[in-house]
## 1
Amino acid sequence: MTARPWLLCLATALLAGCQYLPEQLQLPSGPSSPQSPSNGSALCHAELPDFDNAPCLLHDWVAFGLASQRGDRVWREATLTRLGGESAERRLARAMLLAWGDRRQWNRASELYKADLHAAPSDLQPLLRYWLNELEGRRRLAGQLAESRGEHQAAVEENAALTEELEALAEKLEQLTAIEQSINLRQQNE
């Protein structure tokens, strides 16, 4: 009686296949080496991206870019302190972090991207250029927004000044009308 449930579970596991096993437990099949990323890049999981692991280069940088985008200010600051050094890969990783920070950091991110983009591996350069262009687009839109807000504020201030001037002129007109009526009454009484 107890063998029947075990046989049923075993048969189900065999028929279900290996897709339910974790990726790290699966052995690579065929000529692919354990170093190359496979099915979701299970072997590519660098916390801080670098230029050393060529098979995982794009995966590590994209993963770090997404983490930078999704991370909060505290995570970015903590990671920024870990990215010390003046190597091109560290400076580009800092640029990525700064690009997703607040607007005051965008200029520094742009400078870092432009200064070290040429030092990146050729496979990574299109991705970094894309991120630089995206950052420049955000900077341009932020500039346009600030400019339109400034124009709006100037229009509001001009409108307030014109309203005050209109009210002052209306008051003067009332005073002149009162003076005119007073003169007309005197002339009628004489």
Note: Confidence is low (pLDDT under 50) at residues 21-41.
## 2
Amino acid sequence: MLGFQRFGYHYLSLAIISTFTVLGDRTKAIPRTAVEPTPIQVSKSAFVYVPVQLPPSGEVEDILSERDIPTGDGGFARDYKIQLVAGDQLAIDLTSEAFDTVINLLNSEAKSIGKNDDGPDGTSNSLLFMRIKESGTYIIRVQGFGETSSGKFRLKVSKLKAQ
């Protein structure tokens, strides 16, 4: 396990089916947007970070900040949980005018199965196409490239139909 302190909070990363982060020294969750991670109190001073459930629409407009998961390279990441079925074909689109986006799809074992930094349109937005091989819970990780990873973003996950 890797533990370190950043911006006054203590972080401890764990890998259990998907990625979680324990945030110590916080007495309550800090509201940010309409789509919030669910803090679960495990002791008087610790909370477990649970990835945000992606809404049925597959679209989220949110803000990446220093309250999210530290990436270790000076940036931050935010996780969204989604249930997928074997054979699903996805287009995952991540856009931001504030930072250079990176999208990462993690399987139920928290292993990266697809990643994209810059999309085909020549911008710093990200676009990832994936075909799912196994049914299960997946994590879509939104992050920025390097230290430039904070600000508003839009995530859209579309299930494509076979022709």
Note: Residues 1-36 have pLDDT under 50 and may be disordered.
